[in-house]
Amino acid sequence: MTAPPPVVLHSGASPELELLTVPQVMARLQLGRSAVYDLLRTGQLTSITLGRARRIPTHALTDFIRTRL
Description:
By secondary structure, this protein is α+β, with helices and mostly antiparallel strands.
């Protein structure tokens, strides 16, 4: 199963403005839904909320991975 492409704010958006859904982050980190929400809840992974939707900026995911290397 492939992850859907990241959501882009506008057509000329730079990579820092790409937003990922929780399922996309799950696929990239190879973690389950609960584990990703735990990372968000504890502040280890930052996100924004748009209405009821949770989105994770790609730079936040990159920063999260870099801090663990």
